[in-house]
Amino acid sequence: EKGGWSSFMRKEVAEQPEAVAKTLLGRVVDGRVVIPELESFGDEELRGIRRITLIACGTAAYAGMVAKYAIEQWARVPVEVELSHEFRYREPVLDEHTLVVSISQSGETMDTLMAVKYAREQGARTISICNTQGATIPRESDAVVYTHAGPEVAVASTKAFVAQIAALYLFGLHLARVRGTLSAEALADQLAELQAVPEKLEAVLAESEKVTQLAHWMADTRSVLFLGRHVGYPIALEGALKLKELAYIHAEGFAAGELKHGPIALIEPGQPVFVVVPSPRGSAALHPKVVSNIQEIRARGARVIAIAEEGDAAVLPFADEVLRIPLAAPLFEPLLAVVPLQIFAMELSQAKGLDVDQPRNLAKSVTVE
Ligand code: F6R
């Protein structure tokens, strides 16, 4: 039930701190990750994994793209992300040292289900990250790690996305401990960052008024671009997807580094561009590069809306609007930066008088291939 909220999406966006908190609940004990559901994967087996393939569709695939950066960094194992419907039709190289992790809110997405079945037939081991107890994909997998976001009713995925990233991060940190790729201290730091996410999400939600105003001003916009880099790149893709599906506005997300390889030709005066700015405290090279991307597009007339961490003053001279997110370690920024983009799409949809819970042509679970 909507319980006082004007839409399920509004309710589910607001439930994101809880979605992450519940997904972490009971799974961090004395500075260690405890996931009893993964018992069938012994430490020896986890040490023997040579490659991880994350398979999913849509928003769940973007959660996978975010997690790729974290799992590779922490557990030093190659991770690829593939759309389920592409994976199955290209004869992927699979064996018992390949771990295939599917990500699905509904657990019923036919493309992902068929990809999981295919992976098992080819001898891969499979784990399902799923939000729906007893769904088909978990039943077809060797193990399941549930996200505890609670039922997601609005067609567009929001709270399931942040819960998927949280579950994948737990898995990545578990793997890092078993494989000995992170010191106990580094592991504890990352877990503390993860546990701080719900509170930071609350802070982002409390600051959403500016995003709402922006959406109202931009209700006539015909095209919006999104740029990001590193973990901000999948967030740019997710921001564009949300805007397409909820507000029926043409939107595209790019890796900021790709700009000069083509997309910059799209920039003309007045073109709105959201830029997810990496933390200046992260990889030393990335922040100045994205700031210079902002200067490049601004010089060509783009209207820049930067999503930047609190205190990052470098963006101020060049951005038309700055949406702030709290300080977080770089890998945890996507969990915060996605929220203003979700709210922007939702508010713009409402400003246009559209049905934000049930966008046209879409179904909550896609049970056909
Ligand atoms: C986007 C959205 C879809 C789903 C995709 C996968 O807002 O909802 O892109 O993320 O259809 O669905 P699940 O996670 O149920 O497999």
Automatic annotation (TrEMBL):
Compartments, record wording: Cytoplasm
GO annotation, cellular component aspect: cytosol
Record field: catalytic activity: D-fructose 6-phosphate + L-glutamine = D-glucosamine 6-phosphate + L-glutamate
Entry superkingdom: Bacteria
Active-site residues, record numbering mapped to chain: K364 (for fru-6p isomerization activity)
Single GO BP term: UDP-N-acetylglucosamine metabolic process
Keywords for the protein's UniProt record, in alphabetical order: Aminotransferase, Cytoplasm, Glutamine amidotransferase, Repeat, Transferase
GO molecular function terms noted in the UniProt entry: carbohydrate derivative binding; glutamine-fructose-6-phosphate transaminase (isomerizing) activity
EC id: 2.6.1.16
UniProt keyword S-adenosyl-L-methionine present: no
Role noted for this protein: Catalyzes the first step in hexosamine metabolism, converting fructose-6P into glucosamine-6P using glutamine as a nitrogen source.
The protein, known as: Glutamine--fructose-6-phosphate aminotransferase [isomerizing]
Organism field: Agromyces badenianii
Name of the gene encoding the protein in the UniProt record: glmS
Coverage span on the entire protein: 248 to 616 of 616
